C-alpha cells in the first residue's frame, strides 16, 4: 500500500476484525518476501528469501491481532551465487552468527482494508521499530475447503541502522550500494480446520 496518511488511519481498538478469530498458519508456497536496493545509483538489485515462516493471531479486533515471522538469512536469493555469498558474509548479514531475521508486531492501526503494522524487526542482532504499510486482500474459502487470507505489506529500512555498513566508492561519486532497502511481502495464511 502506497500513500496512506495518518489522517486516513481510522481504526479504533473496538473495530471488529474482518477475519475469523484464531491462529492462522503461513502458506509459504503462496507467499514471498522480496527486497530491492539501488545499485551504483542507476539500477536496482532485487532479491528474495526462500525460507521463512509466520504465525498470524487474529483477535476480535485488528488491534487485538498480531503476527510473528522468522526469515532464514541463508536462504537469500538474488540470482547471483557470488553476490549471495557476499551478502551472507560478515560484510552484510553475517548469516553464520545471525542466521535469522525476525519480526514481532506490537500494534495495528488503520482500518480493515489498509492499515499500518508496527513492530520490532531484529536483523544482525539489532532490533528496531519499523512500520509496514499493509493491505488486506480478503478472506475466502478455496476450492479445497481451506479458509485463506492474503496480505501485502511494504516498508523501507536503513541498513546502517542494523549495522550493515559495507560499501564501495564510485569514481563518479556516490557509493555502490544504497543505504535504503525496500522490503515487500505477499503473504497467504490458512486457518486450520477444527479437529
Automatic annotation (TrEMBL):
SMART domains: YceI. Residues 23-190 form the Lipid/polyisoprenoid-binding YceI-like domain. Pfam families: YceI. Belongs to the UPF0312 family. PANTHER family: PROTEIN YCEI. This is Lipid/polyisoprenoid-binding YceI-like domain-containing protein. The lineage of its organism: Bacteria, Bacillati, Actinomycetota, Actinomycetes, Micrococcales.
